[in-house]
């Protein structure tokens, strides 16, 4: 099901430009970013309560696909499969590598301020920053992946096989990079018009509703039966897995297929028009993703979240997460922290040498795509 490339945006590669008159954005993607970012902030806010609060744990399982897998596929939508020339490499450095290093340093300084030893993270970036390291490698791999005869089949095979290799783990986010690569590639294909019928047909609307409801039912009834290591994608398979090592790949295949299907359901149901506040905040999804751990960590380390017990307090905690998401994604905050989320690289690179514009070439069956983009 191939069609015209889906409309994406005409802003900066980060999608976090404030203002930008005449630079139209597609609210469909920003609305999706808002929901995914909000779910991530809610779960990171109440993460320490998951072991004892069934409602939060059920919500965690039911909404898993709408968080990290959705971010991965959205990153693929806005990525380029063209050759990585000088301009593309500079963009990757400015939009991915430098923000990862900056926020890794901020995280270390904050942990030190809270009483821990100061540690410089390089091989394994802290908390949510693994996504940036994986995104960097996804962008490097995409021009190669699209040249394969059967990219989705090959990347899925690698994602399943890597679970048997213990060396692929947290270091350099190696395991997550390879396991989520099929979803990243699928996101790129969606940006090229793949599955366009799904996003426009009437029958898919009912299928998408059924998919979301099924996720909620599974999360409510069997949330304690779904193991966290099945969803984390961080480690190799374990002999303690109920299906044994021999069939562990089957669990991962089911999880990846379910994640892809549920993200498609989410995109099908997401409004494509501008929504008050939601679309504006969603445009700052990348800023929300980078900043929120710095605000949640002190509150968690001081034990304030652990004191939450009653249903009213849990609702209040969720409302605080909603407020935090809204503030961090607001245009004033995005503008204020822009030197951190998109650092200047003028001091690092020599001036570009003028020359003829090189065309961006991709596979013969897809048109040129915009410059690489970052996360949500």
Summarize, please.
The chain has 376 residues and is mostly helical. The chain contains 16 helices and no strands.
If you had to describe this structure to a student in words, what would you say it looks like?
Helix content is 55%, strand content 0%. The protein is mostly helical and 376 residues long. The relative contact order is 0.21.
Assess the beta-strand content as a share of residues: under 5%
* Shape label: globular
- The secondary-structure element order is HHHHHHHHHHHHHHHH
Structural class: mainly alpha
Tell me how many strands there are. Answer: 0
**What share of residues is helical?**
55-70%
In DSSP terms, counting alpha (H) and pi (I) runs of 4 or more, how many helices?
Answer: 16
Rg is: 20 Å
Residue ranges: pLDDT <50 for 5 or more in a row?
9-22, 357-376
Span from first to last CA? Answer: 25 Å
Oligomer type: single chain
> What profile does the largest beta sheet have?
none
Average pLDDT number:
86
What's the SSE blueprint?
Blueprint: H1 27-45, H2 54-62, H3 68-77, H4 86-113, H5 130-145, H6 151-161, H7 174-179, H8 181-191, H9 203-222, H10 228-232, H11 248-269, H12 278-282, H13 285-301, H14 311-328, H15 331-336, H16 338-341
Helix pairs in contact: 1-3, 1-13, 1-14, 2-9, 3-8, 4-5, 4-13, 6-8, 6-11, 9-11
